[in-house]
Design a protein that fits this description.
The structure is a single chain. By secondary structure, the protein is mostly helical. It has a single domain, classed as MFS general substrate transporter like domains (Growth Hormone, Chain: A, Up-down Bundle), CATH 1.20.1250. The radius of gyration is 21 Å and the shape is globular. The relative contact order is 0.15. It contains 21 helices and no strands.
Length: 440
């Protein structure tokens, strides 16, 4: 529960900003002029968090691998909560000029730092306390945070956007004060999360490693020296879930709501209508997570992920068929449901796979860096590449891009050894005793 509550809050905060970056910030935090320039500037601050995430994984991983998982998770939750709340009370460009976008960018960077340290700590919290043979099932709890946070953030914004008019001149109640509500609500959620996390004890795997003198002085150095192959494999394995998720959420929202040909290159849906379709599809993401956790414990991580990744490659070949302007709403919903279902199946086992790749004394850092480096390769660039592809070559090329990302992850999975039956205490002992088991 502590893992799930924390990741839900963190991802909620992260996605609230994503929603506001398109609907609010271009109007309120950037100089008046070209609407396109304001939108691009707003999206740049959104992307800033992806740069901060690997930095956060190194920073929080350093202390998580040296001092413990519990205290690091409390700090990451606090940092995210404070940054999000402050965005909710931030003066706009109209009040303080250029200082407004500067402060907004700084707080977004803090959000990225916090999320960079959150996921790996929550995954370790679940897997390092799991019963033998149940690590993938236990690891589903932090994975639930991503879709639940997305559901909460999107639903709240949809309700506010529907109920509160957003005047084009910035005078409507939504743009005047309504947009602040989701950010301020974060304070209540963080209070609940802190209550849960402060009641935790340290994970038994880390406690045993610390008792035997295993923690290293510089986890990132030990990671790069002794586990760099595992880091490369873990990063590439995680690329396709990120690419898929941001393709069927961020990119497809812009494509679905763009004007139909000949005026545009999209499908012509209303913003609220298409957001509603996405909310339905995300429910399937949530529903398959408990199932895939049990499957991964029964059949193993590698064969299951190879099968699902191959499925994503095939899914990428269907974009040109199902995303035509003449496609019905039912067809669009079915396409989104398949995408989100595949996302859940590929993403679910990752909270077990990535921690199982690394020794205990660099596990927080290793799993975090792999997870967040993949966010740059698979998420930060995906909306820009897919937008360029659909504009220049057509929607089928977007599916091809997804299939290529899936192929990269497929190759990495072929190079990865099965980790289901590995004891967490024994990871890395055979291949880098000096670097990964004893003090640096």
């Amino acid at each position: 529960m502590a893992a799930m509550v924390g990741t839900t809050i963190e991802f909620y905060d992260f996605y609230v900003y994503a929603a506001a970056a398109v609907t609010v910030f271009p109007h309120l935090f950037f100089p008046k002029g070209s609407p396109t320039a304001a939108l691009l500037a707003s999206l740049a601050t959104f992307g800033l968090a992806f740069v901060a995430r690997p930095v956060g994984s190194i920073l929080f991983g350093h202390f998580g691998d040296r001092l413990g998982r519990k205290s690091t998770l409390v700090v990451s939750l606090l940092l995210m909560g404070v940054a999000t709340f402050l965005i909710g009370v931030l003066p706009t460009y109209h009040h303080i000029g250029l200082l407004a976008p500067v402060l907004l960018a700084a707080l977004r960077f803090c959000q990225g730092l916090a999320l960079g340290g959150e996921w790996s700590g929550a995954a370790l919290l679940a897997t390092e306390t799991a019963k033998p043979g149940r690590r993938a099932t236990a690891g589903i709890w932090p994975q639930l945070g991503a879709p639940l946070g997305y559901l909460l953030a999107t639903a709240i914004f949809l309700v506010l956007f529907t109920w509160l008019p957003a005047g084009a001149d910035g005078t409507g109640p939504f743009l005047t004060w309504g947009w602040r509500i989701p950010f301020l609500l974060s304070a209540v959620m963080v209070a609940v999360g802190l209550y849960v996390r402060l009641r935790l004890t340290e994970t038994p795997v880390f406690a045993q490693a610390k008792a035997t003198g295993a923690p290293v002085n510089a986890p990132i150095a030990a990671l790069l020296r002794g586990s760099w192959r595992r880091l490369v494999i873990g990063t590439l394995v995680m690329v396709v879930p990120y690419t898929l998720f941001y393709t069927v959420t961020t990119w497809i929202l812009s494509y679905g709501t763009a004007k139909r040909p000949p005026e545009g290159v999209g499908l012509g849906y209303g913003y609220a209508e298409f957001l509603g379709l996405q909310l339905i599809a995300v429910v399937f993401f949530v529903a398959v997570l408990p199932i895939v956790g049990r499957l991964a414990d029964h059949f193993g991580r590698r064969p299951l992920l190879l099968f699902f990744t191959a499925g994503i490659m095939v899914y990428g070949t269907t974009f040109g068929v199902f995303l035509k302007p003449t496609a019905s709403t039912g067809t669009m919903l079915a396409f989104l449901i398949v995408g989100m279902t595949l996302m859940g199946l590929a993403f679910g086992p990752m909270s077990a796979v990535l921690p199982e790749l690394f020794p205990t004394n660099v596990r927080y850092t290793g799993s975090g860096v792999a997870y967040n480096a993949a966010s740059i390769l698979g998420a930060a660039v995906a909306p820009f590449i897919t937008t360029w592809l659909v504009t220049s070559y057509g929607v089928a090329w977007v599916g091809g891009y997804l299939s290529i990302a899936a192929a990269c992850s497929f190759v990495a999975l072929l190079a990865m050894q099965e980790t289901r039956d590995t004891e967490l205490h024994d990871v890395g002992v055979a291949d880098h005793v000096g670097d990964a088991v004893h003090p640096g």
